[in-house]
Amino acid sequence: MTAPKLRFAPSPTGFLHIGNARTALFNWLTALKSGGRYLLRLDDTDRERSKPEYERAIVEDLAWIGIVPHEIARQSDRLERYAAAAEVLKRKGLLYPCYETAEELERRRKRQLQRGAPPVYDRAALRLTAQDRARLEAEGRPPHWRFKLSGEVVSWQDGVRGPSHIDTASLSDPVLIREDGQPLYTFTSVVDDVELGITDVIRGEDHVTNTAVQIEIFVALDASPPAFAHHNLLTTASGEGLSKRLGHLSLRGLREAGIEPMAVAALAVLTGTSEALQPLASMDELAQHFSLSKVSRTSAKFDEHELAALNARLLHNTAYATVADRLLEQGIGGGEAFWLAVRANCEKLSDAAQWWRVVAAPTRPAIEESDRAFLAEAVAALPPKAFDAASWREWTSLLKEKTGRKGRALFMPLRLALTGLDHGPDMAHLLPLIGRERALKRLAGEVA
Ligand code: GLU
Fold first, then answer.
1. What is the pLDDT of residue 7?
2. What is the pLDDT of residue 322?
């Protein structure tokens, strides 16, 4: 058996959104689980809408989320291959020239609908003689080319939807090549899937109807079709379809908002399942939770509040090594001890900066007049040696004994003086990070 090979095939006409990430990840996780390869195919035959900057952004955004393709192909580099495949179909009489204008087609469609007939292309072009065609071309009407469907029922076993079939008699013969010579996606995708050795196609269910047509093109090119799976689509929380053009929930935007890539990846894949809110630290862990058989057939709402909650949960469990570089980039020191002290208080990684300032930057203590005497005793009771993880307990136990204060009355004035805030990470962890010198000054009311 050949090793599986999957592909993700976006058109570089905008930034990837969370729904695109879902498709990209379904393919990636399938490749990961099966030891398969992963191709990023840039469907850039639409020259007006495709942009190199979007292409770069796609590669970057995929890398951010944890996908590094084994191979990249660009459809604009493969135009000769499509022309060669088109010749094969023409020789077989399966790709035929048509000369109707868009207006003519529209008029015919309206007439069909008025008669109650399905608005399917009537194949008038197949009845043209060689002379008719020569005349039309002499008039300067270049043809567009349609693929001749079999008119039979095409069946496949869909990896998500189960046994599926479409009667191609209910479809118009699809246009594969436009009159300006541009080959269209329906066709180029099949040629690529054949020639680049794709074994499994996982894509959104908006492509289900293409599948019957594409299976017939595979057969016409003497290739066996890959296995198909069509997953449900994500919508916004209000039920709107996601759009690359409208910039809905773009990976870029989520990254700029400081969301962790693994939170985005996990929710993109698991939205709509009972496992959606589990903090998963790595792609391997996510792979263990992923299965096409868990994907529902109804659309799933992507909820940004869930994403924020998952992001916080994930950070609370994130190891220092995972975030070390990004903390340093933000000028946050303190190493592992600092991260472990503050991670439970971070909803986003950038929240660590606030706690770093509390630890390492001049901070104004908050002191109530009525606590001054207590704080003077606290200074006297500070453990004399360098602080460690046990210092806070030793200190507050001693203070409790000496002053009779307990609970909030004991702890809050210390927290307010040492951090300037009435909430925050566990003081037992913060105290050694603040250090003796700063602590002494802050307890005495100095900005330090
Ligand atoms: N370029 C197509 C799209 O973005 C690819 C569909 C497919 O996976 O076949 O919808």
1. 98
2. 95
Q: For residues 175 and 122, what is the distance between their CA atoms, to the nearest angstrom?
A: 13
Within 10 angstroms of residue 232's Cβ, the number of other Cβ atoms is 18
User: Same structural domain for residues 273 and 312?
Assistant: yes
Take residue 75 and report the two structure tokens written for it: 């459809």
Q: How far apart are CA 355 and CA 341, in angstroms?
A: 9
Pair (248, 221) in one structural domain: no
Contacts of 261 (CB under 8 A, 6+ apart): 64, 65, 66, 255
Whether 284 is covered by a domain: the verdict is: yes
Atom of ligand 1 at shortest range from CA of 201:
8
Give the tens place of pLDDT for each residue, 221-245: 999 999 999 999 999 888 888 887 7
User: In sequence order, what DSSP letters do the residues of 70-104 get, joined into one string?
Assistant: SEEEEGGG-HHHHHHHHHHHHHTT-EEEE---HHH
Q: Two tokens at 102? A: 């868009």
Please tell me whether the overall predicted TM-score, pTM, comes out greater than 0.90 for this model: yes
Q: Distance, CA 10 to ligand 1 centroid (Å)?
A: 6
Q: Which residues constitute the domain of residue 331?
A: 320-356
- Return the pLDDT at 1: 63
Look at strands 95-98 and 300-301 and give their pairing: unpaired
CATH of the domain at 435: 1.10.10
Cα first-last separation, the chain: 68
Question: Which residue ranges of the chain lie beneath pLDDT 70?
Answer: 1
Compute the distance from residue 399 Cα to the ligand 1 centre, in Å: 68
